[in-house]
Amino acid sequence: MLPLLYVMVGGAVGSGARYLTGRAMLSLLGPDYPFGTLAVNLIGGLLMGVLVGVLARNTASETWRLLLGVGVLGGFTTFSSFSLDVVTMIERGAFGVAFGYVLVSVIGSVAALFAGLSAVRAVA
């Protein structure tokens, strides 16, 4: 049960950071482009890389991985987890699998959003 608590606390921190980053980008750059989403995705990818590198070099506990990787970065942006999955596949030499994963994830997510939106609009 304690691992779940680490993830939940980290997720709350990450979600708050995502909100604040989005607000800051909106204030700085305006509403004409999703700069907030872009910022959290890029920052999250960078931070996930740093975290994985640090955890790989040290004998860090599972607690830190759960709190920071799954919790904070998961709440901040799931794109960092997606990016880590892609890099892991590429580093293992599975270029085709990585490419397919990117295509299915991005196109599939957009299609799923359209499907959900269409379903709600059909009922309304």
Question: How much helical structure, as a percent, in the residues?
Answer: over 70%
The beta-strand count equals 0
Low-confidence stretches: none
Write the element-wise H/E pattern from the N-terminal end onward.
Answer: HHHHH
Q: Number of DSSP helices?
A: 5
The geometry reads as: globular
- Tell me the structural class: mainly alpha
Gap between N and C termini: 40 Å
Report the C-alpha radius of gyration, rounded. Answer: 17 Å
Percent range for β-strand residues: under 5%
> The biggest beta sheet, please?
none
Mean pLDDT: 93
What descriptive keywords fit this protein?
124 residues, mainly alpha, 5 helices, 87% helix
SSE topology sketch:
Layout: H1 2-29, H2 35-57, H3 62-76, H4 79-91, H5 95-123
Helix pairs in contact: 1-2, 1-3, 2-3, 2-4, 4-5
Outline:
This protein has 124 residues and is mainly α.
What does this structure look like?
The protein is mainly alpha-helical and 124 residues long. The protein has a domain at 2-77. Helices cover 87% and strands 0% of the residues. The protein has five helices and no strands. The longest helix is centred in the last third of the chain and has 29 residues, at 95-123. It is globular. It starts with a helix and ends with a helix.
